[in-house]
Each structure stands twice: as C-alpha cells, then as structure tokens.
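Suppose a colleague, Dr. K., hands you the sequence of a protein chain of 460 amino acids and asks what its three-dimensional shape might be. Before reaching for any lab equipment, you can write down a predicted structure in token form. Begin with the sequence itself:
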Amino acid sequence: MPQLHSETFTEALRQAAGFDPAGVGIEERLGQIPAIDTLDDLPEGTPVWIRADLDVPDRDGMIGDDPRLASLHETLAYGRERGWRMLLIGHRGRTADRTLEYVHQKLKSIEPGCGPFIKDWFDEHAETLTGVAVKGVESLKPGEFLVFENVRKYDFEMRLWTTVEEQLGLVSDHFGRISAAFRQGATVYINDAIASGSKDFSTTALPLAMGRTALGVFTRRELAEHAVQARDAGLVVFSGMKLDKLRHLHGIVQRGRVEVILAGGSLAMALRKASGEISGERISIGAAGDEVNRDEKAYVPPSAVEKARQLLVDAEANGVRVVLPIDFVVEDGSVVSDLGAGMWQRDIGPETRQLFDETARAWLDSTERKAVFHNGVMGQFENSTFAAGTEAIVATLKALHDGGAAVYVGGGEGRAALERFGSLDDVTHAFTAGGTVLKCLADKALPFLEALAAHATAEA
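The predicted structure, expressed as tokens, is then:
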C-alpha cells in the first residue's frame, strides 16, 4: 500500500504510540502484518530500510558471537538473494554516545556483502539525509548492505518517549518531515528487531511513511512460533533488578493463565515487603528498603512495594500461588533468613533453592498446562559467591524440560546464565529479547507491531 498521509498518519501514530489501544492480541496482529515474502516482486537493486537488533555489547571494541546479530542472517540472506540494497538502522543502549562502528566490523566478518559504515548520516537542521548518506546508498551493489551510526544520536528517535497525547499533532508533523527525508533513501521497510520494544521513531513512525512494509524472518518466527506458545505458561520464574517488570508480572497474573510464580531478585524484595504489609507483619528487606540507598540500583521504593501489593491481591483473587525466597546470600557470602539493616541480598539461599525446585516439580506433576517461562537471574551470577541460585534454577528448568514441559527462557541474562550453567538444548527455546516476550505474556502492545499493523490496515 502507499505511504500514509496527514490525518491517516497521525491516527496510525496514535495507535502505534499506545494512545488509542485496540486491545488486539499478538496472534491477530501477526495475521495483519505482511511477511517478508510479500516483497518478492521488488526489482533487483531496490533499496530497503531494515530496522535491526544491533544493541550488542563489546569488549574493548571487539564483539563476540552474539545471538542478536546472528538473528539478522536470514533476512539479510533473503535480501541478498533478491538483490536488494539494504540499509541497516538501530541503536546501542539508551544514549547517543555508543557507536555502532564495532557492530559494523563484526557484521563485515560474518555476513557477505557488507558495505560502508555511515557515521554522520542525518542533518537535523535541514531535516534531510546528508550527502554522504545518499552517496552511501547509491554506492551499494545489489545484494549489499550498509550500517548507519546509532540512530539515537538524533533527537527525533526518542522524542515519542516523552510525548503526551496533546502534543501528538505537533510531533506527527515533525515526524512527517523526518520521514520524507528517510524516503530519500528507501520507501520499503522491514522490521527484524524483536527487541525494539520502545516507542522509537524508527519503529513506530518510520514504517507509517513507507510505501511497503514487512516483518523480518527471525522476528516473525520468534513471535509466531515461540512467544505465542510461551503465553500459555502455567509456571513463571521471575527475577532481576528492574522493578518496572512488576507491571509485566502483574499483567501476566491478570491474564489468568499462570498458576505458580517463583520470584527472586529485587522483584522478590518488593513482593516480600508487600506480603508483610498485607499480613500485618513487619518484614525487613535490609538495605534495599532504606531510603538512604535510593540512588542504588537495588533500592526498592515505596511505589514499587505498592505495585507489588496490588499484584499479590490480584494473584490471590485469580488463584495464583506466588512463592518468595525464605533465605538469602548477603554481601559477605553468608546465608541469612532475615535481612537486617544494611544487608543487601545478592542471591537466594539454599533453602529457597530447594523450595523453588520442589515447588516446580510438584507443579509439573499436578498441572495440565505444561509450559514454563523464565526471565532474569536469581543473583549476581557472574560472581561465583552469588551464582548458586541461578545455577540451581537452570538445573530445575532442565529437569522440567526433561519431564515433558515446554520451557521458554527470556533473553539477556537469563539466556546467558543458561549457556553458562547448562545448554540451549536444555530448554525448548531461549529468546534473544526478554522484555518483548514479557510484554507478550502480559498482553501489552508492542509498538513496532502496532505500527506495522496500522500501516497494513489503514487507508491511505
């Protein structure tokens, strides 16, 4: 279909940005979005924007074998076979100062047809692609690709993050001008960045300005074949330091599929404190609950405790059993059952490891919903002093898989821990993007899917 214009563009952007949620499930959304093979009629030499997962770590400028970069292979190979000229855009982290030059070097070593790296590719004052960028696109031979520098170096990329609904008209006008500049490079767009869960310009607005769009090979398979199955998990193992995941866990509870939750990390601290408030007990979570530590990553503010309390109330109403740690490994490596003032919990203790394992095995013996989803790690597993909890959970996941359960592991640290203490073969599937899958399980809309669906279903 042709690009969207004026009011149609704004309304589609409203949907993609979540201001007008449609309440449509991921299964229906995937059915609306074109697959990559719908672009087979593109002539050789057609330029194509590819929003890629390029957010990978480096060590002193060197990037190892990374599953996110490997996930791009099928879409790049598809484009090579058809002679497309492919323009890769993406980011590293949430700031503008992390270069993608190392990513380009890695891709050059693993993918045929790697063209130039374009550092300064957008003129924000003139709102146009730079001459260097245009020449870079024109220099590509059919089947080759180039890599543009971190798109988050430009202010427009994250503008929608802080946009309120009343500002959407102005932002839409701005994005329309920026999109016109992007059309200088290509009018075809593919999203193969499953981890692109934020409301970035390149995932929410850019596809709306394109003539044709599609979902990449890897991302479609991850969502359609694996995330959809993980949504039926009866057991959820949940841990980590990011307290914003509480809302995703709450969404999972509200969906009414999960039966048992095993919780660790800072998430468990918030839930433990909230559990005490509900039962009338005074429960200490140690240094994590002390306001003097409010600048520490592991600090649990009262607002998180309140979210945890609401989650526990809904869990009880829905018959969901939430199992929390009963002992902890603290900073000096000792094990305690109560976190005193000044103590930081760094891992779950041996009694909790046994409790979690026994609970998981008992659940498997009694349930008809034999699917498991695991996200996060139980402690600072990179340090051997605090690794036992995570290692034990990996062993439990393997036992569940061996016992006939479909076991899905979220990306990031959960996948890294699985590879350190076990093997990818020990589970049914390990994702490269934990946050995106969490949103799927919690019935939260994915902005990049909303944008692609809005483009596919809107009238120009």
